[in-house]
Amino acid sequence: MEAIPALFISDRVKELIPRYQQFVREELIPLEQGAIYGSFKAHLPSLNALRKKAKSEGLFAPHLSEQEGGLGLSLLEFASISEILGQSPLGHYVFNCQAPDIGNMELMHRFASEELKSTYLIPLQKGEIRSCFAMTEPEHAGSNPIHLSTQARLDGDEFVINGHKWFTSSADGAHFTIVMAITDPENLNPYQRASMILVPLDNPGYRLIRNISIMGDEGEDYLSHGEVAFKDCRVPASNLIGEAGAGFALAQERLGPGRIHHCMRWIGICERVLELTCKRASSRELNPNHFLADQQSIQHGIAESAAEIKASRLMVLQTAYLIEKYGAKAAKEDISTIKFYVSNVLMRVIDKAIQVHGALGITDDTLLSFWYRHERGAKIYDGPDEVHKTVLAKRIIKNYSAK
Amino acid sequence: MEAIPALFISDRVKELIPRYQQFVREELIPLEQGAIYGSFKAHLPSLNALRKKAKSEGLFAPHLSEQEGGLGLSLLEFASISEILGQSPLGHYVFNCQAPDIGNMELMHRFASEELKSTYLIPLQKGEIRSCFAMTEPEHAGSNPIHLSTQARLDGDEFVINGHKWFTSSADGAHFTIVMAITDPENLNPYQRASMILVPLDNPGYRLIRNISIMGDEGEDYLSHGEVAFKDCRVPASNLIGEAGAGFALAQERLGPGRIHHCMRWIGICERVLELTCKRASSRELNPNHFLADQQSIQHGIAESAAEIKASRLMVLQTAYLIEKYGAKAAKEDISTIKFYVSNVLMRVIDKAIQVHGALGITDDTLLSFWYRHERGAKIYDGPDEVHKTVLAKRIIKNYSAK
Amino acid sequence: MEAIPALFISDRVKELIPRYQQFVREELIPLEQGAIYGSFKAHLPSLNALRKKAKSEGLFAPHLSEQEGGLGLSLLEFASISEILGQSPLGHYVFNCQAPDIGNMELMHRFASEELKSTYLIPLQKGEIRSCFAMTEPEHAGSNPIHLSTQARLDGDEFVINGHKWFTSSADGAHFTIVMAITDPENLNPYQRASMILVPLDNPGYRLIRNISIMGDEGEDYLSHGEVAFKDCRVPASNLIGEAGAGFALAQERLGPGRIHHCMRWIGICERVLELTCKRASSRELNPNHFLADQQSIQHGIAESAAEIKASRLMVLQTAYLIEKYGAKAAKEDISTIKFYVSNVLMRVIDKAIQVHGALGITDDTLLSFWYRHERGAKIYDGPDEVHKTVLAKRIIKNYSAK
Amino acid sequence: MEAIPALFISDRVKELIPRYQQFVREELIPLEQGAIYGSFKAHLPSLNALRKKAKSEGLFAPHLSEQEGGLGLSLLEFASISEILGQSPLGHYVFNCQAPDIGNMELMHRFASEELKSTYLIPLQKGEIRSCFAMTEPEHAGSNPIHLSTQARLDGDEFVINGHKWFTSSADGAHFTIVMAITDPENLNPYQRASMILVPLDNPGYRLIRNISIMGDEGEDYLSHGEVAFKDCRVPASNLIGEAGAGFALAQERLGPGRIHHCMRWIGICERVLELTCKRASSRELNPNHFLADQQSIQHGIAESAAEIKASRLMVLQTAYLIEKYGAKAAKEDISTIKFYVSNVLMRVIDKAIQVHGALGITDDTLLSFWYRHERGAKIYDGPDEVHKTVLAKRIIKNYSAK
C-alpha cells in the first residue's frame, strides 16, 4: 500500500527510493557512530569515497539538473528522497544536498553572475568545495530579519564589510560564505537595506572566531557552527548576489524550499527514531516474556508518534507541491504551518524515544542523544515557532476580517 | 490555490463544492439555532422542503448511485462534500447522508436481500423513512465489540430477540433498526457469534425506553439517542443481513467508511468553528481599537488549530483514497489513525473557540455549546481513542519485530 | 496520614471535616440527580429542610461569625470545608455559602451601611433571601473590568440606573442585586469611574430578560444565570456600597476570597470525579476478569489527576493563608496562579473521567455531564486564563527587570 | 511575603537561606562555566578551597548532624537549603551533600558496621573521599529493580563479586562503591535475593571500563557516569551493609529521601532557569523598545512555569514533612507523585527557557544546554515516570476498590 500518496510521488521517485534506502542502510548507518560522535574530519576520506560511489550509481546531487551533474528532480520529487536521506545525519552530506550548501546552490543558480557561478557554484555542485551562509548576529534577535548591524560599504569597486555573525553553519573548512550585510542603511524601506555578498574565506578581513560549542559539541568541519568576524573585509563589488538591496527578498526565496528540505529531513529522523523505539520496545524485557512493547503507555506513544509523522509528511509534500505550482510566496501560510508543526513533532518523537530507551537513551551509544541535542534548534532556526504561528494566524484572520 | 490537493479532488467535486457551500450558508445556517436548540420535530416541514430543494438542484444523496437517486460520488469524492455539509449540524440530514442511515444504506446495499432492499432500503434512500442501528449495550464496554448479551434465537422461521441496547441513535421516529445479536453463542470463534437482523420498529416486542438525556439534551427524532429493549421480539428469519454469524465482520465493514464520514464531518465543524473564532476575535474589542485578534495567545491558538485541521484533512482524504483503492481492511491502520487524531483535534478546536468567545461561548446563543457537548462523544464512539491507539501501535510494532 | 498539611488545618477543622463529609454523603448526594437535572425549584422544600438540619447540627454558614449565625471559620479554615462541600453541586447552597451570595455577604459585611446590613445582609446570612451580582455586560469583554456601559446617574437623592447585564448568576428568584455602574464617567482614572449599588429586584426599573440557556440548560432559581436590564431604575443614593467610585476596588476585594472559594470548590469536584473514575474503572469489565483499571493508560490518567489535585490543594490553601496574613492585594500573584492552574486541572480531571466512563460519561445519568458543561466557565469567569497568566507574568518579570 | 509556607520552614532555615544564597551567587556561579564545561578535575583545587570556606562559615554538610561536622538539619529543613544549592550545578558538591554520596552517607549512617563507618563513612562525611553506588545493569531494565545479574558468592569470609554495572555515577575518582549484588539467588522471595556490599575501588577485581559519554559529555571525576566491571572481585564478608538479602529494602530506604533531594535540586534549577528566562526576555530587543518580555506567548510561558514551580515546591516540602513524621514507606504515594510531577516540570521549564534564549539557548554559552542535556535523565533514573504513575494509581485504585 502507498505510504506516500500517488499524487506526491512520480514513477521515477518510486524507483529511486529503495535505491537510496539501501545506500543509507548499507553505507551510511555503519559509519554514523564514528563520524558523528568521533572526528568528522577523520572520516572525510570515507565520506568522499561514498560520494564517488553515489556518483557512480547515479544518485549524487538529486536536487541538481542533469547538466549540473544531478538527477534533475523537482522540489516535490526531491522531498521524498530527502526523507530517506534524513534517516542518517550523513545522508544529505554524502549526496551533496546538505544545508547550507543546497540553499547557496539554489540561490546562486538563480541569482549569481556567470563569473561567480563558474568560479564558485560549479565546484560547489561537484562537491569539491563547501560554503556557508552568514546572516544571524549575536546582538540581534534572529526572529527579526531586518535587525542587522553588519555593514558593507562600497569603496570604489569593492565592498568593505564589517560585522559580527554567528551560527554561520559549517564555516569551518568552507571555501566561501554568502554574507548578509546592510548596503543601503538610509533606505526608507527597511526590507531593502541589506544585500547578499559572496566572500571567499581566505580573505584576510575574515576570521573564524570559534566553532560555537553547541549542546556539548564544538564539532568540526561540516558539523560545526561558526562565530565569524568581518573586519574591513574587502571583496569585489561584482561579488554581489542579485540586486543591491535585495538581501531580504533573496533570503525569503532561499528559505521557502529550505524549509521543505528541513522538514523532510526531520521526518526522516522521525521515521528512524520510531524504528529505534519499536526495536527497543520489542526487545527490552521487563519481566520474563513481558516486553516494553507490551506496555500500553509505550504503545500509545508509538501510535501518537506514527499519527503525527503521517500528518507531517502529507503536509510537507502538499506544501512542496504548492510551491512548485504557485511559488513560495503563494505557499507562505503552508510553509509557516509545516515549519512549526513538524519541528514540534520531531522533538516529541525524539523525546518519547529517549524515554523508551531508558538510561541508554541519554548516552551517546545511540544517535538519539545527537538528535535530541542538535535538532532542538529546529524550533528556533529559520524562524522560531512563535513567529511562524503569528504569521500564519495574521493571514488567516485577515481572510475572515475581509468577510 | 488548492486547499484540497488535486489528487484528492475530481473536477466534478470541484464544481460541486461551491454549490453545496452556498446551500449550507443560505439555507441551513439560518435554520440551525431553531432546529438544534428548539424542537427538531417542529422543523421537519422546513427540513423536508429543503430536501426537495436539494433534489431539484441535483444535490440530494451525494453518496448514492445515480440509479438510487444520488450523485454517484466515490467515497473520496463524497469525503470533500461531507466536510462542507459538516459545517452545519443540519447538513448531512438534509442531504440524507446522515449517520446512522448512511451506514445502514451502505450495509444493506451490499448485504441485504432483494426483498429487504425493496421494502426498506429504497424508501430509506429516498428519505421517506429513517432507521437506526442497535449495537452498544449498557452492561458491556463498547470498546469490546464481541461482548454482547442480546440474543436472537431461531424459532422456526423467526428470530426471537431479547436484549437491551442503548446509544441506538435516532431511534425516536425511526422506521426500522438493524440489531446486532448473538445467534450462535457456542461458536468457538467469538467473532462469529453475532448476526445483524433488521427489525421494523412497529414490532410489539420492541420498546423505546427513553431518549437518553445526553449532555443536557434528551433531543427528539433524528437528534436523539435511544435506550431500547427487545422482549421476545419476533421477526422473519429472512430479515437477516448477510450471513448468520457475520455480524462482527459486517460491523467492521460498516465502520470503515463510517469513520471517513465522521472525520470529514468533524473537519467541517472545525472549519466552521475556526471561522466563528476568527470572526469573534476580529470583532471583540478589549480596549478601544485593540481586539482579541491582536492578542498573541489568540493568534497562536488559531494557528495551531489551522495546522491541525489541515493535517486532519490530508490524512482523512488519503485514507479515503486508500480504502477506495485497497479496501477498508488494508487501510485499517490509517482508519485508526484518523479516528483518534481528528477527534482530538476537533475537541481542541472547539475548546479554544469557546475560550475566545468568553461568556458567550458557554451560552446556547451560538452552536459552540452544541458541538462542545455533543461531539465529546467523538473520542468514545466507534472505538475510543485508547482502543485505536493500541490497534495502531500493535500493527506497527509487529512490522518492526519482524525485522 | 495527613492529606492536608498541618499548617493549613486547625484542630477545629479537623474535627469538622468528617461531619461535613458525612452530611454530603448522606444528605446531599442522594438528592443531586433530581435537584440538578430535574427542577431545582421543586427541590427547594427538601433543600430548606436540609438547611434546618445543618443549622441544628451547628454546621450552617461556616464562613460567618458566630454572632452572624455561623461557625466563625477563618478564610483558611473555610477553604478546607469548602472542598468537602464542593463534592456536591448542592453543598455550598445548603450551607448558605454559595456564590454569588457569599461574595455579597463578605462585601456588605465590610462596606455596607448599617441600614443596608439590617435590611438585606441579615436575612441573606440567615438564608431567608438570595442575592445576585450584576457586573458583566454582553457588549464588553469581561476580561477588561473597566469597560462598562451601565450608568448610574445621581438625581437628587436617588441613583437612576440604565444598563444591560448578563451572567447575573442566580438572578431568578433573588431578592436584590448589587450592580456595578459608572457613576463618574469623566474621572481621569478609569479605575475610579464605577460604583456598586444595591438594587432590590422588585424595582419596576429592573427586568429579568431571561435565564440564559447555558450548555443546554436554562436552569432556574439559584441554578441560573440571568440576562437583566435596568431602565431608569431608581434606588436611594444610600444604597451605595462603600465609596462612590470605589466599584473597581471593591470588585477586587470581592474577587480575592471569591477565587479561594471557587478553587476549593473545584478541588472538591475533582476529588469526587476522581472517585467516580476509580469506581468505574474498578468495576467496568473489558474481558472476563480484566477491568478498565488494569489498563495502563487509565492508571496513568488517574495518577496525573491525583498529582494535579494535590498540587492544586496545596497552592490554594497556601494562598488562603497568605490572604489571611497579608491581605488579598499582597497575594495577587498567588491568586492569579491558582485561578488559572486549578481551573485547568478541573477540566482535565473531568474530561478524563468522561473518557473512562465511555458512553455513560456523556449521558446525564451521572453528574459528569453537569460538571463538564457548567464548569467550563471556570476558565472564563473571574478573569480568563489569559488575563491571569499575563498579570502573573508581568509581576514576575518586573521583579527581574528591577535587578 | 513567604515564598515557603511557615509550616515548612523553621526560624533556623529562614536565617540560613540568605547565607547559602549569597554563597551560591558570589562563589559558585562565577566558577560554573569553567568547572562544568571545562575540566572538572582542573577545578578541584578551587572547589576544595570553597569547601573550606563553607566549613569556616559553618555551612558545610547541612544534612549531617553536628557531631558529624554538619548543621543537623532535618530532612525538611535540608529540603529548603537543597533548593538554594540546586541553583548551581556546583552547589551540592561544594557543601558535600551531592548524590550519590549523600545517599551513601544516609545508608551507612543507619546500616553500616562501626568499622565500615570509621574507615569509610567518616572521611566521606568530611569530604576527603568520594563514593559511588553500583546498581543499574545495562542488560536489565532499571525499572525492574529485582532484575539483576551481578552475583556475590560467599567464599569463606569473603564475597566474590562478578557482574557488570553502568550509570555508576561519579565512579571516576571515587574511593569506594556500594554494589548491589545477588547473594541468595534461590530465595523464593525475589525481593530478598540481593545485598549491598561495600567495595573499595583499588580492588584488582574492579575495573572502570569507561566514563559513559552522555549527551555529548564523557565528563570526569564527580561529573561522570561510569560503566564498571567486577571480575572475581573479593571483599571481606564484613563489608556487607545491613543484613544479607536486605538489598532491595535498603535501596528503597535510600531512595525515599534521595527523591526529596533530587526534587528540591530540580526546583532550584527551575528557579535559576526562570530567572535566566526573565532576564533574557527583559533585555532582548525585538524592535526598538519592544522586548521579548512584551510578547504574550513569552509571558504565558513564564506564568505557567511559575505556577508549576510553586506547585512542585509545596508538594515536595509536604512530602519531606510526611517522610519525617511517618517514614518513607507511609509517604510512598507522595514520593512517587513528586518524582514524576517535578521531573516533568523541570524539563518543561528548561525547554521554554531555551526557546526564549533563541540561538543562544542551544549553545554552551549558558548553563541551559547543560541542564537540558543532563537533567533529561530525571524522568528516567530513580524510577521512570511510567513506573511511578503506575505505582501511584494502583495505590489509589486500591483505596477505591476497597469501598
The SSE string of chain A, one letter per element, is: HHHHHHEEEEEEEEEHEEHHHHH
Percent helix of chain A, as a range, is 40-55%
Largest sheet of chain A: 5 strands, antiparallel
Helix and strand content put the structural class of chain A at: alpha+beta
Rounded radius of gyration of chain A (Å): 22 Å
Mean pLDDT of chain A: 95
For the termini of chain A, the CA-CA separation is 42 Å
CATH top level assignment of the largest domain in chain A: Mainly Alpha
Count every helix of chain A, treating DSSP H or I runs of 4 or more residues as helices. Answer: 12
Beta content of chain A comes to 15-25%
What fold name goes in the CATH topology slot of the largest domain in chain A?
Butyryl-CoA Dehydrogenase, subunit A, domain 3
Q: Into how many domains do the coordinates of chain A divide? A: 3
| Tally of strands of chain A | 11
CATH homologous superfamily descriptor of the largest domain in chain A: Butyryl-CoA Dehydrogenase, subunit A, domain 3
CATH architecture of the largest domain in chain A: Up-down Bundle
Domain Acyl-CoA dehydrogenase/oxidase N-terminal (chains A, B, C, D): 15-128
InterPro entries (chains A, B, C, D): Acyl-CoA_dehydrogenase, Acyl-CoA_Oxase/DH_mid-dom, Acyl-CoA_Oxase/DH_mid-dom_sf, AcylCo_DH-like_C, AcylCo_DH/oxidase_C, AcylCoA_DH/ox_N, AcylCoA_DH/ox_N_sf, AcylCoA_DH/oxidase_NM_dom_sf
Family (chains A, B, C, D): Belongs to the acyl-CoA dehydrogenase family.
Keywords (chains A, B, C, D): FAD, Flavoprotein, Oxidoreductase
